[in-house]
Amino acid sequence: MTIKSVGIVGAGQMGNGIAHVFALAGYDVLLADISQESLDKAMSLIDRNLERQVSREKISAADKASAMGRIRTTLTLTDLGPSDLIIEAATERETVKQAIFEDLQPHLKPETILTSNTSSISITRLASRTDRPEKFMGFHFMNPVPVMQLVELIRGIATDETTYKTLLGVVESLGKTAASAEDFPAFIVNRILMPMINEAVYTLYEGVGNVKSIDESMKLGANHPMGPLELADFIGLDTCLAIMNVLHDGLADTKYRPCPLLTKYVEAGWLGRKTKRGFYDYR
Ligand code: CAA
C-alpha cells in the first residue's frame, strides 16, 4: 500500500524528531500526546530544528514552511484512526504501549500498518496483542532523528513481507538507511551501545576515571562524537537502565547487569539532560 499519512503517538524527544523527518519528506503527520504542554514543546522544537537546517542551507525556508504546515497535533489518540501508518513513540513501558495499541485498533483501517519505535521490547510480543501481527513491525529511529542516518527495521515472527517492503520504501523516502534486525532483546544498536555505556558507568563507579577523563578518552581515543556518559545523559538514564534490564532479563547473562550507580542515579531522578542533572549538571 502507499503510505501518505502518518500518526505518531508521543511527542517526546523521539516523537517530535520522527514528526520532523516525515513532514519534511512530504507525509501528512498527526502527532498525539496526552499533554498539551508536550505537544506545544514538540512543535517549537521542530520549528527550531528545521530553522537550524535552513540556516545551514540543508533545506529552504519554503521547505520548512511546508513541513510545519503538514504537522497537526491532537490530545485524542483515536484521531489517529484514518492514518496509513502508526508509529508509537510513547514511554518505554510495555503496558503503556499495549494499552495504546488496544485503544487505537478499533478505529484503524484494516490495511493500516502498526509500528513501535521501541528500543528494546519484543516486537513479536507487542504484535501478538494486536489484531494485526502480520502488519506490525519495530521501526526504531536514532536520536537526534533529523541527524542520524540509521533506522532499524525489526520483524516480529508474524510480520509479512509486504509490510517489511512497505517500510523499507518509507525509510528510503526519508533519505535514511534501514538496517534489518531480528527480534532479540535490544536488537542491534542498543545490544552493542548500551553495554558500552554501562561499562563506562562501571568505570566511573570503580574510580578508574572521572566523568571528564572517561568521556575524553572515548572522544579523543576512539573518535566517538560524544563521550559515553554525555551520550547516556542525552539518551536519558532511565532509558539506558530500562534497556540494560531488558538485556539482562532477556539474555540471562550477568555481563548485562546494570551498574548500581546507573540505578542509583535513576532512583534519584537524575535522568540526564531532560531533568537537567545526570552525569553532568545542566542547571
Ligand atoms: N535537528 C536537526 N539538526 C540537528 C539536530 C536536531 N535535533 N541536532 C543537531 N543537528 C545538526 C546540526 O545542525 C549540525 O548540522 P551540520 O552538520 O549540517 O552543520 C549537525 O547536526 C551537528 O550538530 P552540532 O554542530 O550542533 O553538534 P555536534 O557536531 O556536537 O553534533 C550530534 C551533535 C549530532 C548529536 C553528535 O554529537 C552525535 O552524533 N552524537 C552521538 C549521537 C548518537 O550516538 N545517537 C544515537 C543514540 S542511541 C539511540 O538513539 C538509540 C536508542 O534507542 C537509545
Automatic annotation (TrEMBL):
**Record keywords:** NAD, Oxidoreductase
Q: Which residues form the 3-hydroxyacyl-CoA dehydrogenase NAD binding domain?
A: 6-183
GO terms assigned for molecular function: NAD+ binding; oxidoreductase activity, acting on the CH-OH group of donors, NAD or NADP as acceptor
Q: Where does NAD(+) bind?
A: 10-15, 33, 92, 97, 119, 143, 274
* Domain annotation 3-hydroxyacyl-CoA dehydrogenase C-terminal: ranges: 187-282
InterPro entries attached to this UniProt entry: 3-OHacyl-CoA_DH, 3-OHacyl-CoA_DH_CS, 3-OHacyl-CoA_DH_NAD-bd, 3HC_DH_C, 6-PGluconate_DH-like_C_sf, 6PGD_dom2, NAD(P)-bd_dom_sf
Site Important for catalytic activity — annotated at 140
One biological process term in Gene Ontology:
fatty acid metabolic process
The similarity annotation says:
Belongs to the 3-hydroxyacyl-CoA dehydrogenase family.
Supply the PANTHER family for this chain: 3-HYDROXYACYL-COA DEHYDROGENASE FAMILY PROTEIN (PTHR48075), 3-HYDROXYBUTYRYL-COA DEHYDROGENASE (PTHR48075:SF5)
Protein name per its UniProtKB record: 3-hydroxyacyl-CoA dehydrogenase
Q: Which gene encodes it?
A: hbdA
